[in-house]
Write a structure and sequence with these properties.
- The chain is an alpha/beta fold.
- It has 2 domains: 3-200, 3-Layer(aba) Sandwich (Rossmann fold), CATH 3.40.50.720; 209-457, NAD(P)-binding Rossmann-like Domain (Rossmann fold, 3-Layer(aba) Sandwich), CATH 3.40.50.
- It contains 17 helices and 14 strands.
- It has helices at residues 13-23, 36-42, 54-61, 72-78, 104-116, 134-142, 165-170, 183-196, 210-241, 245-253, 274-287, 291-318, 347-356, 369-375, 389-392, 413-419, 435-441; strands at residues 3-7, 28-32, 66-69, 81-84, 121-126, 150-155, 175-179, 205-209, 327-331, 360-364, 382-386, 398-401, 425-428, 444-446.
- The termini are far apart.
- Bound molecules: nicotinamide-adenine-dinucleotide and uridine-5'-diphosphate-glucuronic acid (UGA).
- Nicotinamide-adenine-dinucleotide binds at residues 7-13, 32-35, 38, 72, 85-88, 105, 108-109, 128-129, 158, 160, 162, 272-273.
Length: 457
């Protein structure tokens, strides 16, 4: 039996440790966080994150071999394996502000480990997404003290996506484990592999050196995001040429060399990682003097911002460049469906821009209203939140679909149309709704990358 600790009880730490607890009954799993409120919620039935299927797994394991608390130092003392899953946001100050990774939380954790560890050998696992060669810095910190503990640093980046975390963790495409190329490193990798092999087949365990593992995580996110920016850039061309982006995506994706996934045009990608990880990748390239490569990746983020801006300008243009006092309803605020997470959601800049035009903005989301309230708290203007879509659309002129929640497909759009000011407009930022049907009801419909359907010319 090992004492496994995870530092950081967030979107990654919570679900990944719940999965290890579910499958590795012989180990004790402890998850700690400096955020006491978060820990209290992990110990309740009102978990701090919404993730389909997570509550059932946590309830089954909590108190058996899964424990949440906020005594970080105490938990480190007993730990044999320590997963570090703290946040690694983008720096907002000093050198590299707006581009480089802010490693203050990660470094604080490394020093906490050094100060408090007691076991003779401790494996420290980088679960957070980190710039390549961070493990070297971590090893330097861990070897800098007088501790008699020997450490091995292993990179084991997480590839789960929010909204499908449990499915992704249950049947991962691969589990990447990068270790030092020496005897100690190989032993550490073996131990981490052993944990996953409780439920992941051997051919899905990919063992590499530490640097390849760290870099692969950044590159995987950059490449996924690059596909979205690529298709979003083409959605703009479709709008000029009467080509249809859904047909283009399908035709392109059917080439087995390209594949069908991550080719859905959208108002722009969001989430806590794509933007930050690409910026960190781009900054790393700059650091190594690879300016062309840095610029190439930075352009993925630029196109993403442009796409959200383009969406906003389409609304403005179709409303005769005047949004003053017009009621505009945002259907969805989360950065994607099946999550309450709003970090870097395109809804945030969209809201800001609409308020800048003095629009009357109403926000609906099935799971993200609490986070949305925090995101907009410093925005000035006429802004309100609705739990019921039919209340939100009373007297509205425009609906914008931001998040493709399944429940938006089931709305009674005839009833919605009745409640709106005419002419009524829908701007579908996800090409999620049935545009033909909406047009028949009477809406003026503006999809992305497809010809608009207007009753008024
Ligand atoms: P998060 O912000 O939800 O959680 C991080 C937690 O770490 C917070 O609760 C914070 O209080 C805690 N923390 C910070 N410093 C601490 C310290 N010194 N001691 C104890 N706790 C501390 O972040 P997240 O979304 O879980 O992401 C964590 C890492 O995983 C990031 O590097 C991210 O890039 C990566 N990642 C995230 C996802 C995702 O879907 N969110 C997926 C894959 C990888
Ligand atoms: C993404 C990756 O998919 C995960 O593998 C990775 O572990 C994670 O980032 C991370 O490192 O944080 P996530 O951001 O949770 O996961 O969600 P995605 O499903 O990737 O969606 C990201 C954004 O892209 C969402 O706003 C989504 O709506 C958008 N998207 C996705 C599109 O606009 N078009 C698509 O075709 C696919």
């Amino acid at each position: 039996m090992s004492n496994i600790l995870c530092i950081g009880a967030g979107y990654v730490g919570g679900p990944t440790m719940a999965m290890i607890a579910k499958f590795c009954l012989e180990h004790k799993i402890t998850v700690v966080d400096i955020n006491k409120d978060r820990i209290d919620r992990w110990n309740s039935d009102d978990l701090p994150i919404y993730e389909p299927g997570l509550l059932e797994i946590v309830k089954e394991a909590r108190g058996r071999n899964l424990f949440f608390h906020s005594d970080v130092a105490g938990a480190i003392k007993d730990a044999d394996i320590i997963f570090v899953s703290v946040n690694t946001p983008t720096k907002t100050f000093g050198e590299g502000a707006g581009k480089a990774a802010d490693l203050q939380f990660w470094e604080k954790t490394s020093r906490d480990i050094l100060e408090n560890c007691r076991k003779p050998w401790v494996i420290v696992v980088e679960k957070s997404t980190l710039p390549v060669r961070t493990a070297e810095a971590m090893s330097k910190i861990l070897e800098s003290g007088k501790s008699s503990t020997k450490f091995s640093v292993v990179s084991n980046p997480e590839f789960l996506a929010e909204g499908s975390a449990i499915k992704d963790l249950t049947t991962p495409d691969r589990v990447l484990i990068g270790g030092e190329q020496n005897e100690k490193g190989r032993k550490a990798v073996e131990q981490i592999s052993e944990l996953y092999s409780h439920w992941v087949s051997k051919d899905r365990l990919l063992l590499t050196n530490v640097w390849s593992s760290e870099l692969s995580k950044l590159v995987a996110n950059a490449m996924l995001a690059q596909r979205i920016s690529s298709i979003n850039s083409i959605s703009a061309l479709c709008e000029r040429t009467e080509a249809d982006i859904t047909e283009v995506s399908k035709a392109v994706g059917m080439d087995s060399r390209i594949g069908t996934k991550f080719l859905e045009a959208s108002i722009g990608f969001g989430g806590s990682c794509f933007r930050k990880d690409i910026l960190h990748l781009s900054y790393l390239c700059e650091f190594y003097g690879l300016h062309e490569v840095a610029d190439y990746w930075a352009s993925v983020v630029r196109i993403n911002e442009w796409q959200t801006d383009r969406f906003f300008h389409k609304i403005l243009l179709e409303q005769f460049n005047n949004l003053t006092d017009k009621v505009i309803v945002l259907l969805g605020f989360a950065f994607k469906e099946n999550t309450g997470d709003t970090r870097d959601s395109p809804a945030i800049p969209l809201c800001e821009k609409l308020l800048g035009e003095h629009a009357n903005v109403r926000i609906h989301d099935p799971k993200a209203l609490d986070n949305a309230r925090i995101d907009v708290k410093n925005m000035e203007g006429n802004l309100s939140f609705y739990e019921d879509v039919y209340d939100a659309v009373k007297g509205a002129r425009v609906i914008t679909l931001v998040t493709h929640w399944q429940e938006y497909l089931e709305l009674d759009f005839e009833r919605i149309y009745e409640k709106m000011v005419k002419p009524a407009f829908i701007f579908d930022g996800r090409n999620h709704l049935d545009h033909k049907k909406l047009f028949q009801i009477g809406f003026n419909v503006f999809p992305l990358g497809r010809p608009p359907m207007r009753h008024i010319q």
